Please model this.
Amino acid sequence: MASTTLLGTDLPLAAAPMAGGPTTLDLLAATTDAGAFAFLAGGYQTPDALAEQVRRAHDHARPFGVNLFVPATAPAPDPAALAAYARRIGDDAAAHGVDLDAALAAVPATDDDGWAAKIDLLRRDPVPVVSFTFGPPAVADVGALRAAGSVVLVTVTTPQEAAAAEELGADGLVVQGPRAGGHSGTWDPGRSVGDGATADAVAAVVAGTRLPVVAAGGVDGAPAVARLLRAGAQAVAVGTLLLRADEAGTSATHRDALADPRFTTTAVTRAFTGRPARALRNGFLVRHDAHAPVGYPQVHHLTRELRRRAAAAGDADRLHLWAGTGYRSAAAGPAADVVRGLAAGL
Ligand SMILES: Cc1cc2nc3c(=O)[nH]c(=O)nc-3n(C[C@H](O)[C@H](O)[C@H](O)COP(=O)(O)O)c2cc1C
Model:
């Protein structure tokens, strides 16, 4: 089997970064021990927490990557639109005793997720691979991380984004298809992400770039991995298939929902965070999808406490149940079994 020169692993498989809990050091260890590459999720973490996680990941011998959210450059949503959305979701918030007026007042004017401190950390304490999502990093940051010895990957969803990432000096691309679980990496959160096959997105990007590609999105088993490799990817990253793994930090409410026959499909929505993301189609999504403003991270902050309480209370109807289209194949058990199962079928 061809090894991935980009990621440095024998298997053409990666554990995708999953911020908000699912990615843990145990998941990194389990998947890399099984021969895959693995990403830490730097998004949402404080710079200090990420620094500690990176320090501990270095103790584990295998190569790994760190993923960061690129801060939004689009203007914040109109305050009136955000307030209208807060009123809309008021009953859902009240169900968990959340005061949405207070939540609205507490939405920060700006939030760059600790960007500068995280870039500094990765320059001081370089990791084998740094990947970005949500937009293009600055040329200077790409150059600085490469100079520090990291391979720099940029997540793209279209051939246009791929061309721009190549211009920036990226070493490779993560091509994320519309069927991926969680947030879309689209650089334009106002666009409709669609439903197309990841293999089509990979083929379209590969036709126009010299850069090596890691594909992600909608993988439900080894045949899907093989299709993406045939489409031109050098490696394939899986997220959803690992959400129920023993070592993942996925909340119990989310874990159980993934196996609950009550949920029969996924959809892309901005209802939870203001940025398109694929989730199990639950009540909150159905009620509010059509009304959510484009506005990440403002909507994320507005709904955060409500979602935290929903997760703690076992309320799957109001939680962001991130899931790719392959969620029915996400099995409980050791993460190594997921990696080995995919590898055995190639
Ligand atoms: C719970 C969850 C959290 C995610 N968090 C991130 C993240 O922090 N950064 C990122 O680049 N992608 C994130 N993603 C997307 C994954 O990296 C990857 O693109 C996706 O999981 C691949 O599709 P699949 O879920 O169908 O395997 C997340 C996905 C999920 C399901």
